[in-house]
Amino acid sequence: MSQKTAFYVLSLIVIFFIGYYYAKINLDSSETNIEVTNTALSDIKLQEELAEIIESKNELQTQLDDINSQLIITRAELKTVQQQLILSSSKSKVFEDELNQIDDARKVIKPLQDELTTANNNLINMAKELQQVKNELQLVEDKLRSSEVELELVEFELQLAEEKLELNKDIKY
Length: 173
Known about the structure:
Largest sheet: none
Oligomer: single chain
Order of helices and strands: H
C-alpha cells in the first residue's frame, strides 16, 4: 500500500503539475485570446486606417497626376511663349537695325539732297540764262535776217546801179 500511496501522491503531484501548466496555458491562451481579440480589433482599426490612408494616397496620387499634367501643359505653353518671345525679340532687333539703317541713310541722304537742291537751283539758273541767250540769239537772228534783207536790197541796188552804169556806159559809147 505504501506503493499505492506513493503512486497516488506522485499521481496527485503530477496532476497538480499538469493542472498548473494546463491552467497556465489556459490563462495564457485567454490572455492570448484577449490579446488576439485586441490585436484583431487593432488590426481592423489599422486596416480601416490603412484603407483610409490608401484612399487618401490614391486621391493625392490622382491630384498629383492632374497637377503633373497641368505642369506639363504649362511647360509646353511656357516654351511656346518663350519661343514667341525670342521671335518677337529677334524681330524687334531686326526692326531696330532697319531703323538705324534708315536713320544712317537719312544722314547720308540729307547732304545729297542739299547738293541735289543746289544742283537743281543751278540748273534752273542755267535754264534762265539759256533762255536769255536763246532770246538774245533770236534777236540776233532777227537782226541778221533783217540785215540779210537789207544786204539783198543793197545787192539788188548795187546790181541796178551796175546795170545803170553799164547802160550809161553803153549809151556813152
